[in-house]
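Morning run. Coffee first, then this:
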Amino acid sequence: MSSYTGSPSINAIREDALRIFQAGIGAADPYEAVKRCLSVHGHHIEILLNPNDPDQKRLGRWSKIHLIAFGKAACAMARAVLEIIPVHLLADTGIAVTNYENESVIGNIEVIGAGHPLPDEAGLKAAIKCADIALSAQKDELVLVLISGGGSALIPYPIDGLTLQEKIITTNLLLASGATINQINCVRKHLSRIKGGGLAGMTQPAALHALILSDVLGDDLSAIASGPTVPDKTTYADAVEVLKSKGVWSRVPANVQYYLEQGKLGIVPETPKPGAKAFNNSAHTLIGSNALSVKAITKAAKHHGYEAKLYSDNLSGEAREEAEKLVIYAKTHIENGIIKPVALLAGGETTVTLKGNGQGGRNQEFALAFACAAQKHGLTGNWVFLSGGTDGRDGPTDAAGGIVGPATIQRMTKAGINPIEALKDNDSYAALKSSKDLFFTGPTGTNVADLQILLIHPNF
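And here it is:
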């Protein structure tokens, strides 16, 4: 855009925000990401260790490939592998475990739908099958593991003496406490046979390679799906501290308390640490991440005529608090003078500490809180704010997130909703529904955390 000729309608700005968000989804396409990193050359299988550097690669002449996929992108990733690896190299039937919304039929792959964000019995059965495949692998064979966001909940395999229900109760308490994903995963890893490097240990003496689509800020591989194929630096003592610091230690099942205390005393083995034998013949490739999607929305914003500015590539903290901070930042930016459309962009994963009885997700709460804070602080300009989950599902709802503008609060009030009270009750879904500010993508088949897009046009 060479010159600015006036602000378009709010609906037009909303369309820009939705297109920019879709660019972020496209950058996290798991099918294409696998295709970029895996190839067959003669009798060798070639796996890129770094998608941005074709010279960093792993070559192997493995006699069989055992395929295990889990996460929200499992089906798309598995489909890509089947199009690359010759059928005669695949060992029996592979497995893909995904959330129910993303199930699809894939030839020669057993697809299992399981519970997310809370695990269920279907996930337990699927986790046992994943473990069986890993344990069956022999020397000179490769276990190819496809990991994407949601894997922690989708393949629950509690340690001996702990029931799935006890693990669900513990996970539920952590989710409601406002614990970060890293804190939740720390506890999960110490209550699981598969997580925290457990799956890598099961594959010995076979080789292991994991293609990983990151839904974790900073791309800490030990946190993605609770790190089933990489070393775990956290300890039982860390897990106990998480539960105590979040005020839920006294409420978790007695068996959980007992096992973690036993671990803290060194009576039960720790998760595999860096340098352990479990990782002697294993490697991984990070094939996609929130950072890549943030780059994509930055490029898309520029394409649509916006001056793109990165607000944060590591947005975390309480959703409503971060929303107010962004409003204050935007107001300062506007007051300093803008002469062309501006896009303030972010990626990350905020948290919500549940205090009410309403329904919603962290992106809907972020959007509702932004609209409330915009009114409170007198945010001017023709603006639209979108906060959405790249998996297409925000919390336990069918919406991907919320997209709000200057008239959002007015529409809510006209519909009989008190937005401040809705925010207090964590009832962002109903509030945004009343103002027609929910947005839906349906299941995207990927998951690289959340994206935030604030578009601002000058007032002339």
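The two ends are 16 Å apart (CA to CA). Good start to the day.
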